[in-house]
Structure formats: C-alpha cells, structure tokens
Amino acid sequence: MHRPTEPSRHPRHTPPGGPPPETADPAVLAALLARHGWRRRGAAAGPYSRWTPPDAAGARGRTSLLVPDSRAYPDSADLVAEALAALRHSPAPSARDVLIALHTPVDEIHWQRDAPEPEAPAAAWAAQEQLRAGARALLLAAALAARGTAGYHGARHRRQAETALGRLLTGTAAGGRELTAFLPVGPGAAPGPDGRPVTTALLRALYAARDATDRQRATGAPDAFEPAVEAGVCQELTEAIAELVRGSEGIRITLHWAPAAGPPDGFAARPEPVAFGPGDLPVLREAGARYIRDEPPVAVQLTGAVVRMRREDRGGPGTVRLRILAGVDVPQVRATLDEDDYRIAGHAHLLGMPVRMSGRLESTGGFRRLTDARDVMPVRVDDGERDRLLKSLHENIDFFEEACGGE
C-alpha cells in the first residue's frame, strides 16, 4: 500500500527537483552525468544513451537512466522527465549533485583530501568541519581577489566578499575527504550575484600559488610570491590552502565549468587540477607572513559612530572604537586620540552624532587600527540615525560614564 511521504524535517538536505523537463537540455544532463562518474552503457552512437550510477548504493537500487541525445526526438521530454524522477529517488549521492547543477547553471569546485577515513565519530565530524572551513576560506579569498588584488586584505571588503558567495551551495563532506561546492553562473532563477568572477579568480590564483610555491622550493627565492599578488594570491589564500592540507597527505582541487554556460574566455574547457601537499606548508606559511608584514598602511578619511571610549586618567589621550559608516570597508576601527580630540568624540557621542577623522589604517590587526588620527569633528546625520546613536548611548550609559570619568 502506498503511503504519502512525510515532509522532511531538514528541507535544506532535500535534493532539488531539477528544471521542468521541457526546458532541461539532454546534452547538459549527459555531460553532468559523465562528470559525476555515471557510466554510459551500450553503443556510443545512437539517439539515446543509458546511464548507471558509479556508486554501490545506486547499483543496489538499480537506477538506470535513458537520456536522449537532443530535444529533436518526439519522446525527448518524456524521457527527460523520467530521468529527472529517477534522479530524485536515486540513493546514489551523486544524483543530488547532478540535480543541483541541472537546476541552475553552476560552476563546480571539488576538493579531494588525501587522508585516512576517521574511525571515531568525533574525529569524522572534526575532519568534515576542517574541510568545510578550509573550502569556505578558499572561496572567500577568491571573492576578495575578484574585487581587487592585495597581498593582505585583512578586514577590508569582507562584506562584499561574503555577498559574492550568497548563492553558494555545498554538498556533504563525507568523512572529511571530499566536498563539492556549486557557484551559480549568471542571474539564473535565484536572486544573488553571478558566481563566475569568483571561480575564475580562484582558478587563476591557485595556478599562481602553485607556480610560486614550486619556484620558491626550487630556488629559495624569497620574492617568488610577489608577482603572484596580481593573479589574486594573498595571505588569506595561502592560509586557506595550509588549513586544507594540515593533517593530510595533500589536497587536490578541481574546477568544472557549467556545461550550459561553457568556459569563460581565456580559460581551458577542462582546467587542470591543482594539488598541494605537506611539503608546501612551510613555503605557504612564510609567504602569508610576508604578505602581512609587507602590506602598506592606507591613508583614509572615515566617518564612524563612537561605540566605546576608554582612557587611563581623567585627562589626557584615550582610545575610541568606531562603528564605520563611510570611508573604509571594515566594520569597526580603533583609534587613539589626544585629549582635545577625545573630548570632541565624547561630546559627539552624547549628542548622537558620528565623527569624521583622518589617519592611516595599519595592516597589523587586519586594518582595524587607525594611527596618526587627527582632524576629528562631529558630522550631522538624519534624525533616524541620530535616534539610533542616542539609543546605543543610553543602553551603555554606565560604561560611557566610567570611560569619560576615568578609573
């Protein structure tokens, strides 16, 4: 007797249904099946092809897909509909990845980590989290590079980089050894930014990091990583690669372009995988430290709301923390002010007004510290923002009085 399926308690793990059969391209479906290891059975030539899954789970379920070579055949839509239905019910893990990629054109990034399968559940969970965190950090570094190159980004442009990954989809990190991420290409059906700039920046940076690592290991040249900055290599990228390699025999990263979109100009249709191993760790860590050390300070003029004030004595200089409103793309900045500027910042805070100041953002601490702060002055804002600043003051009035009165 057929029983209706109960709603899933975890809808985010439910595989997508794929596009409507009449819009799904059979050629794209066949390309995705081949990419994910499905086996084509029978003759290579012909109007149809039969596909079976690569894994034992799918074999036990006897999943078999009959896919037409094009939409030209009268029964093409029916066959594609049957294939999509079979994928939705297939126990093969790769079936979900095929449906995701078919639903919206996506570039796929695969991570393969060479490590023994963890025996204890806690170790398996830790390995999965390490792989997920490292992969996310690597994509974030690529998103930063897509916006602009720098040896060390620090806290700068993090919000835009996170936004660029807003449509990112990730599969399961089985055993902490394999992971696939999907970045939608073009506007597509889902809202959010185009992921193609991130995937191209990632591939370009990985190749440059591999070349620079090889050069430094072969020649000992300390400047091997300097030209790589223009290709998107940065401290955040070297740190992410090192985290992925740590505790393993190596990491292998492979990128596949969305079949429906094709490769971007200037890139190979099938990019070569990039691999890093434990022998690369000293070079990567040294390069990351050098990037932080060599990144110059940035002259800025910023506007921010005072959220913290502190000084050791009733008079003299003090330190303020600002929530940035304009001028730099970091969430908060800390600055040391002389006695007069500290008093101006305190009065502005009492009146619910932000302040404007100039100075230099230092790379030490991730561009969160302003040195040589000067030209502090209050800035008028609209009534709504002023009310929010006053509310913040009232919520922290004890702390503010203590900071202004000294200790």
Structural commentary:
The chain is α+β, with helices and mostly antiparallel strands. Helix content is 39%, strand content 21%. It has helices at 26-35, 56-61, 76-89, 93-103, 121-147, 158-164, 196-219, 235-245, 281-294, 339-350, 383-395, 397-405, and strands at 39-41, 48-52, 65-68, 106-113, 169-170, 178-184, 251-256, 274-276, 298-310, 318-326, 332-337, 355-362, 369-378. Residues 1-16 and 397-407 have low confidence and may be disordered. The N and C termini lie far apart (77 Å). The chain is elongated. The chain has 12 helices and 13 strands. The strands form 3 sheets. A 5-stranded antiparallel β-sheet has the order 5-6-4-7-8, sandwiched between helices. It has a 5-stranded mixed beta barrel with strand order 9-10-11-13-12. The protein has 3 domains: 16-103, no CATH class; 108-294, no CATH class; 298-405, DNA polymerase B, N domain, beta-barrel (OB fold (Dihydrolipoamide Acetyltransferase, E2P)), CATH 2.40.50. Residues 14-23 have a biased composition (Pro residues). Residues 1-25, 43-62 are annotated as: Disordered.
